[in-house]
Design a protein that fits this description.
four-stranded mixed beta sheet; Rossmann fold; globular; 6 strands; two-stranded parallel ribbon
Length: about 160
C-alpha cells in the first residue's frame, strides 16, 4: 500500500487487508519527486523479494482549474505523479512481476469526454488531468507488445502471459 503523506490512512488499509486474510505493507514515497518511483520500486522489492503479483495504480493527483489559473509547477506535478511515476515504476518492477501478474491502471472518463459545461471559459477544467489519463491509456496500449503482457485497454489492465 503506497502512500505519500497519509501514513495513518495507509496503515488502516493495511490492517483491513490483513484482517481479511491478505498480505499488505505500507510503503512511503513521494511520486512527485524525480526518483520517487525508483525509491518505491526498491522498497517494494525488499518486501516481496522476487515475486510481485499485482501492481495497481488507483490514486492520482487531480486538479481542476481554469486554464488561466494553471501554473507550470502544478502541470508538471500532475504529469510527474500520474504519468512519469507509473511509467518508471513499471520499468523498475518488471524483473519481479511474476508470470500471470497484472498491472491495473485506473483511468478516468475525463480522458475521453469533457465533463461539465465546456462552453464557459471561466469554468474550472480538468484538461491537464485528462491529458495525464490519456497518456496512461496510451501506455496500456503500448506495454503489452513491449513487455509480453495481454492487454485489456478498455479496463486499463495488462497481465503477464502465463
Amino acid at each position: 500500500m503506497h502512500y505519500g503523506n497519509s501514513k495513518a490512512e495507509a496503515d488502516k488499509v493495511v490492517e483491513e487487508i490483513r484482517s481479511a486474510g491478505g498480505r499488505a505493507d505500507a510503503v512511503q514515497s513521494d511520486l512527485g519527486a524525480t526518483d520517487g518511483a525508483t525509491i518505491l520500486a526498491k522498497r517494494v522489492q525488499k518486501l516481496v523479494d522476487t515475486r510481485l503479483d499485482i501492481l495497481v495504480f488507483q490514486r492520482w493527483c487531480v486538479q481542476s482549474r481554469t486554464i488561466g489559473r494553471s501554473q507550470t509547477e502544478d502541470f508538471d506535478r500532475l504529469f510527474a505523479i500520474n504519468v512519469r511515476s507509473p511509467f518508471f515504476l513499471v520499468q523498475q518492477t518488471l524483473p519481479i512481476l511474476a508470470e500471470g501478474a497484472s498491472l491495473v491502471l485506473v483511468s478516468s472518463l475525463a480522458a475521453r469526454f469533457v465533463p461539465g459545461n465546456p462552453g464557459q471559459a471561466d469554468a474550472p477544467s480538468l484538461s491537464a488531468y485528462a491529458a495525464t489519463k490519456g497518456a496512461i491509456e496510451t501506455l496500456v496500449k503500448h506495454w503489452p507488445q513491449r513487455f509480453g503482457f495481454v492487454s485489456d485497454s478498455r479496463q486499463c489492465r495488462c497481465s503477464r502471459r502465463d
